[in-house]
Amino acid sequence: MSATKIVLVYQSLLGIYGDRGNAMVLRARLAWRGIDVELAEVEPGEPVPVDGSVYLLGGGEDAAQISAVKYLRADGNLFRAVDAGAVLFAVCAGYQITGKTFTVGDNDEVIEGLGLLDVETRRGSERAVGEILTSWTRPDGAASLITGFENHGGYTYLGADAAPLAKVEVGIGNNGDRTEGAVQGRVVGTYPHGPVLARNPDLADWLLELALGRRLDPLPSGEIDELRQQRVAFVRH
Amino acid sequence: MTSDAIPLPSRARLRVATWAGELAGAASRALGKGSGASVRGQVLTRLAPNAFRLLLRGRRVLAVSGTNGKTTTNHLLAAAIRAGCGDARLVTNADGANLHYGIASALSQRRRADIAVLETDERVVSDMIAHGKPEVLVFLNFSRDQLDRHHEIKSLGKSWRAALESAGSAGPVVIANADDPLVVWAAQTAARVVWVDTALLWSADAALCPACGAVLAHTGRWDCPECPLTQPEASYRVVGAQIRLPDGRVVDPQLNVPGSFNISNAAMALAAAVSFGVDTDVALAGMREVTSPAGRYATAVFGQTTARLLLAKNPAGWAEALPLLSSDPAVLAIDSVAADGKDVSWLWDVEYEKLAGRKIVCAGPRAQDLAVRLSYAGVEHTVVPQLQAALDAARGAAPTDVIATYTPFQALLKMAGLR
Fold it and tell me: The complex's ipTM?
């Protein structure tokens, strides 16, 4: 069996908030379990691999969002991979461009996104900046907290085809309606940085299980549990 | 300085405000709360809101700004000017307090100095251009830093560009880093520019053309494929550890601060000093006097541990600091109050993988975040949040290298009696 491929898309455009860490976390959590894994990084102008299992988009500035959409459309492979069942995990600016439309600049110019999530993003009443805590119900019914740091001016509104990823306990989330993120099939969008998969190993393992189509053995988590306790205590204080 | 240039009522107000600031500063020192410079400046500007503008008046100003290297470059430039013009004529904010009140505080300390060398926060550059009318302005670089406060790196460049445009032909000579596209774009509106090729290490924040938004081509030099913006031909050029001058001569700066990035900072400071009228060799000799600008690279004793202190505030700064790390074990101290940036996601933009094989003591309030990062990087580590305890745990190396973000760095300077 060939290696599971994690594809980190356009770091130079969508990588200013440490979101490359999500790729490092996914790769390590497979490697630690003895599963063959490969990390591919692709930049604008290079062909996006079609055989990835998980594709990752991260945070970036307005101009970078427009460029990323342009290059991803011209390339087309991300759409083909998602159609074929790959997982797409998109954070912050990456989440926004994965939706149908988003806005940029002082004049709120409306830009067409990738259309892989039924969400639309518009400038919010106030910028959402700070630690965020949400509660997520895993597909097996267990509850899990998601901790991270959100930093976004756009507010995201979900259409009928997308379901919220989590409920907000502290922070703004999608738009202040107490929902955070969006899930539609195997496409997942969310706002928190951290990176979010470093702080939330349950979420990382869920994405990997989606991609591999099977359950994974648990990994030791003492150090990350301690970090999670610290961040949860900080934000609830 | 021609104090007659200040109208009498505001001069009297400024004098009272300066006294009050002195008093507050002395009280702060007596209470052991640091140098008192910051409190002095805050009281001063509270009582005389236009102190920044008034105190700049009548001086010949050189200003230094950018994301990384401001403090060291400012020290190098001040040393060069000191060598060329004499210490008595010079005032500088050596402590690195670079906001309006920090600059006013420094200026109030030497009312008669007619030359001011001023480290200037990126957000204060526009006011510096408008009110300080600098003769020379050094633009070092732009990179991601404290994104919880500065959401768009480009907006700072935009504000510099606009300020230079309105200064027009009376504006400063800008000493600009030709390797940084955003710096080049910001400096384009200046009346006169001296370009310096700094052999910049960090280019991760220079993906897009600041003028038109196209993806830049990076092939040794950078170039926009869709508009005329391109890397300018430089007058000064960093070549390895040396600096090539505009006349073709190559000089070895022989600095007493470490790191290739400080060769770049020295090239920028040299170009600024020469542009101000200081002889090249005199400027270089002056710069060699700089050893530990505002505590950076200082070696100090903490209980049983001797430590060398390095500051790194953002991914570009860490990329510069990590190659300097030579001890094993070493201490890395992370905090996330406002001055450090509240979001520590940037830990994942730093190549801590390079530390593999070394033992790291994770310190500071965000030590646990660093610990998780190091686990994923495969770097052996322990977690000791409290600074003195962390230094105790890392005893043995001679000296123990410490890299810290802003707040723990200031705490270490205070513990060592260096501020």
Answer: 0.97
More confident residue, B275 or B14: B275
Q: Which residues, listed in sequence order, are joined to residue B227 by a DSSP beta bridge?
A: none
In the predicted model, what is the mean pLDDT of chain B?
Answer: 92
DSSP annotation of B161: H
Residues of B with CB under 8 A from a CB of A: 144, 147-148, 151-154, 204-205, 207-208, 213-215, 342-349, 368-369, 371-373, 375-376
Structural domain ending residue among the three candidates B231, B258, B287: B287
Number of domains in chain B: 2
For residues B283 and B378, state if they share a domain.
no
Q: Do B207 and A13 touch (CB under 8 A)?
A: yes
Contact B272, B83 (CB under 8 A): no
Report the distance separating Cα B353 and Cα B350, nearest Å. 8
Using one digit for the tens of pLDDT, what is the confidence trace for A24-61? 999 999 999 999 999 999 999 999 999 999 999 999 99
CB contact under 8 A, A21 and B154: no
Which residue range(s) make up the domain with A215? 4-236
Domain co-membership, B72 together with B103: yes
Segment B183-211 mean pLDDT: 91
Q: Tell me whether residue B292 is in a domain.
A: no
On whether both B144 and B267 belong to a single domain, the answer is yes
Nearest to B333 by CA among B268, B398, B401: B401
> Which of B227, B260, B287 finishes a domain?
B287
Question: In angstroms, rounded to a whole number, what is the distance separating the alpha carbons of residues B374 and B371?
Answer: 5
Any idea of the CA torsion for B414, B415, B416, B419, to the nearest 10 degrees? 10
CATH number at B186 reads 3.40.1190.10
Instruction: Quickly tell me which residue has 């067409």 as its tokens.
Output: A112
Q: Which of A79-83, A168-172, B51-55, B231-235 has the lowest mean pLDDT?
A: B51-55
Q: Is residue B37 part of a domain?
A: yes
In whole angstroms, give the CA distance from residue B184 to residue A222. 48
Reported pTM: 0.92
- pLDDT tens column, B351-392: 999 999 999 999 999 999 999 999 999 999 999 999 999 999
CATH of the domain at A90: 3.40.50.880
Residues B269, B77: contact at Cβ < 8 Å?
yes
> Interface of chain A against chain B, CB under 8 Å?
11-13, 15-21, 24-25, 28, 44-45, 61-64, 66-67, 71, 127, 129-131, 149, 151, 153, 193-195, 198-199, 223-224, 226-227, 230
- Is pLDDT above 50 for B77? yes
First to last CA, chain A: 48
Supply the range of the domain harboring residue B54.
Answer: 3-287
**N-to-C CA span, chain B:** 29
pLDDT tens, position by position, B162-184: 999 999 999 999 999 999 999 99
Closest approach of A218 to chain B, Cα-based (Å)? 16
Phi, psi at A114, each rounded to 5°: -80, -20
pLDDT tens digits along A196-227: 999 999 999 999 999 999 999 999 989 999 99
